[in-house]
Amino acid sequence: MNGTYPELERRWKRLRGDGWSVREVACVGAPRTLICAERGDHTLPSIAIAAGVHGDEPAGPWALLELVESGGLDPAFSYRLWPCTNPTGFDARTRESADGLDLNRTFGRGGQSPEAKAILTANRDRKFELSIDLHEDADATGFYCYEYGGGDDGRRVVAALDAAGLPVDPLQATFETAGPMDDTSCTRERGRITADHRAEAALLGSLSYSLAIARNAARRALTFETPSRASWDLRLSMHRLAVRAAIASISQGEGKVARETMFE
Question: What is the domain count for the chain?
Fold first, then answer.
């Protein structure tokens, strides 16, 4: 399944009254809005999850919607979700927005795109225990993640995918998506890349969503990548399980999560 943004938006709005607050956040200077969904008491530890910053990576937005619709998020936390941060690219199936921008390079200096500015402005008074950003990679052979803030959450996520029999990328080569990063500026292991967010930002010359939130608002940040050449159901399953495993990791400290069947 790879539906349209209006369909995605309609399904999110149906969750209103089911414990979720779902609102539209204006993109100042652009004729569009972003969906922001929230749930839980703000006195609880908070988790931010975003998806769809690249419009040609649709599995993240749909996996996040399915996870919420099925009640798959741990109620011990509060949540702020950005279900699709590039709605124009999502409908056009392009990496860039309708303005021709790679939005994941516009989160510096208060936001250099209407979408980034809307998200950063809305998040300015919030602090998160964990941030997760859902992506896809056309070059990957399996799941992998970027991890910021220390800890072993990424390793626990990879272990959960291994336990479920889902493919994990060995990361034996440097992907083009890593930009100027190489093995002198980051640490690579099977399924996991770690780097200092300040050093990575200096190399990139800009801020991604994860780098911006790791710098200003989140104690720990993870970016998940699924292989876009894999089957649709497999990619959705990877994202759903990875999100649950990350939340279990910070909740329990041991990454304990129930196994998810591949096409659940």
Answer: 1
